[in-house]
Amino acid sequence: MNQYLLSEEELLLKNTIKDFADNTIAPRAAHHDETSEFPWENMRGLAEMGMLGLGINEEFGGSGGTNRQTAIVVEEISRACAATATTFGAHVSLCTQFINMFGTEGQKRQFLPPLVSGEMMGAFALTEPETGSDAAAMHTTGVASGGSYVLNGSKTFITNAEEAGVLVVMSSIDRSLGARGINAMIVEKDSPGLSVNPLHGKMGIRASSTAEVVFENCSVPMENRLGDEGNGFRETMAVLNASRLTIAAQCVGIAQAAYDSALAYVQQRRAFGQRLADFQGLQWMLVDMATSIETSRLLTHKAATLMDAELPFITEVSMAKLHASRVAVECADKSVQMHGGIGYFAPTDAERFYRDAKVMEIYEGASEVQRLIIARNLISRE
């Protein structure tokens, strides 16, 4: 974003995180992608900078900050390494923020400090093998028994599950109740009856670990429930609506990285006696990329500004996620095209951006779901 549209504090934050991303995260990105190695060093560095505490009150060890600042940070991380951004987003915007938004004072004091410091990683377990976008139809149950809930079922595609010390888990007290019978609860990793099975073979975002989580008579204390009985689905939707800002910002970062890579390449590569950058066809591709990226960034910051002002934002953040995810895919595609044959091979950055971008149109509300949300809200306004 143009520096003149940022406050002095936002610009300082952007420059600080950009320096860390350029000098620490980016040089490791290809290695992490090739090996699928979890980016522990990146997360520890972000924790030391206070970035894991964004949006969390200082009394719980957090750094405070605004949604606009979160968008700035996520964009810069994503520009350097999309997998690190996914790890960061699941930890900060899903697990940590869920506890921050709906936890009791005691839950916050117990779990937020280690999450904010990076001492403990967090995960968010919603998706199931048979219920992706239709989250209210979940099969995992959490039935009250004595002073506990007993969980049975499984979750899949759970980011950070293998490394997490704590998971925020959704389960149904009675499947016949649908969305009205879902609880959100804090489940500690060492709980008896909880097992984690790593998943392999992802197209992109490879260094962000993904796993299946299985519950077999897993006992969770009732005091670990987040919010009111049966209100977990509503709480989840509130968290997901807010966290879509993180995904939109991630999309902007990936698109920007793809554009930067393409621009650098066409300026130094020559063909037919001139630079590729001198060909009008490629110039117009760059123009379209730059314009689309700036549009995505402005949509994302508009949604963040509304959130910070505590104004209605759900339509705008869904628009930002929908548009920015499409732009990330399109810019990654154009970047490979401008690199030509070399862009199809690893370890060319363009090849990695192409693989990383696609999931942006799928996770945390597929593009089709975003269109449903936007359409419903537009019609209801009339």
How would you characterize the overall build of this protein?
The chain has 382 residues and is an alpha+beta fold. Helix content is 53%, strand content 16%. The chain has ten helices and ten strands. The chain has a four-stranded mixed sheet. Strand 9 (270-271) and strand 10 (274-275) form a beta hairpin. Helix 4 (82-102) packs antiparallel against helix 5 (105-117), helix 6 (232-268) runs parallel beside helix 8 and helix 8 (314-339) packs antiparallel against helix 10. The longest helix is centred in the middle third of the chain and has 37 residues, at 232-268.
Q: TL;DR of this structure?
A:
The chain has helices spanning 8-35, 40-48, 67-80, 82-102, 105-117, 232-268, 280-308, 314-339, 349-357, 367-381; strands spanning 121-125, 141-145, 148-159, 164-172, 182-188, 194-198, 210-221, 225-226, 270-271, 274-275. The chain has 382 residues and is an alpha+beta fold. The chain is globular and about 80 Å long.
